[in-house]
Amino acid sequence: QQQVKQSPQSLIVQKGGISIINCAYENTAFDYFPWYQQFPGKGPALLIAIRPDVSEKKEGRFTISFNKSAKQFSLHIMDSQPGDSATYFCAAPYSSASKIIFGSGTRLSIRP
Amino acid sequence: KAGVTQTPRYLIKTRGQQVTLSCSPISGHRSVSWYQQTPGQGLQFLFEYFSETQRNKGNFPGRFSGRQFSNSRSEMNVSTLELGDSALYLCASSLGQGAQLYGYTFGSGTRLTVV
After folding, report:
1. Which one, of B108, B64, B74, B82, lies nearest residue B16 by Cα?
2. B45 to chain A: which residues are within 8 Å by CB?
3. How far from the centroid of its chain's Cα atoms is residue B49's Cα?
4. How far away is chain B from the Cα of A100, in angstroms, using its nearest Cα?
5. Nearest to A5 by CA among B56, B42, B47
6. What pLDDT shows up at residue B56?
7. Which residues share a beta bridge with B10?
8. Could you check whether the bond before residue A40 is cis, i.e. omega within 30 degrees of 0?
């Protein structure tokens, strides 16, 4: 069973700081690595995704960094705000099927 | 544009009963995937439907089944409910088969509690 390993499990960051969440994946035949954000009582929502023809993708305060040789990718949230407090999931395509495997999630809390 | 609609939002069932959950995808989306979310196991893939056919299936027992209708709406059924089936069941719609190409849009889920 292919896995996506996500760390840390929980993270507390001061307002204005940088939040960093890491993921490692196993072999995959597809090149698409998304991050999802989930607020309590809601389903996950696509936050940002990268295709590894580039090593970094930035959208506003959110950046994905991708290291294909190490099979790792990370989410950086710059100038973290209390509204960013949520659970974040990385995901990777399953190697042999058109489905997504999710990491175990990181509960992020931003202190005012 | 309406999002993914899941009904009901909350459900309480007794062990041994069966349950049917419904999902209406975003208009124009033809793929529907189902996930089970629990605190211990996280988000686990149940199955994916595209053009009324099951395309992929996760590692769940046969008590979990689903179907998709011609209008892309989907239902999942769980028979002989067990306490461990208590979870948030999420439906995700995608424009086409393969979320790696199109990305998922999730509904808010159905919270199932088995007592």
Report:
1. B82
2. 94, 99-101
3. 10
4. 7
5. B42
6. 85
7. B111
8. no
Chain A / chain B CB contacts < 8 angstroms: 63
Give B51-81 pLDDT, tens digit per residue.
999 988 889 999 999 999 999 999 999 999 9
In the β-sheet with A72-77, what is the strand arrangement from edge to edge? A4-7, A19-25, A72-77, A62-67, A56-59
Distance CA A102, CA A28 (A): 13
CA torsion through residues A59, A65, A68, A71, sign: negative
Give which of A45, A55, B105 is closest to A64, Cα–Cα: A55
pLDDT of residue B98: 65
pLDDT value of residue A32: 82
Half-sphere exposure of B60 (CA within 13 A, CB side): 24
Q: Residues of chain A whose pLDDT is less than 50?
A: none
| Separation of first and last alpha carbons in chain A | 40
Q: What is the DSSP string of A32-52?
A: -EEEEEE-TTS--EEEEEE-T
Pick the closest to residue A106 from A5, A4, A40, A11 (CA basis): A11
Q: Is B45 on the interface with A (CB under 8 A)?
A: yes
Residue B95's pLDDT is 84
Q: Which chain B residue has its CA at the smallest distance from A35's CA? A: B103
Radius of gyration of chain B (CA): 13
CB contact under 8 A, B42 and A30: no
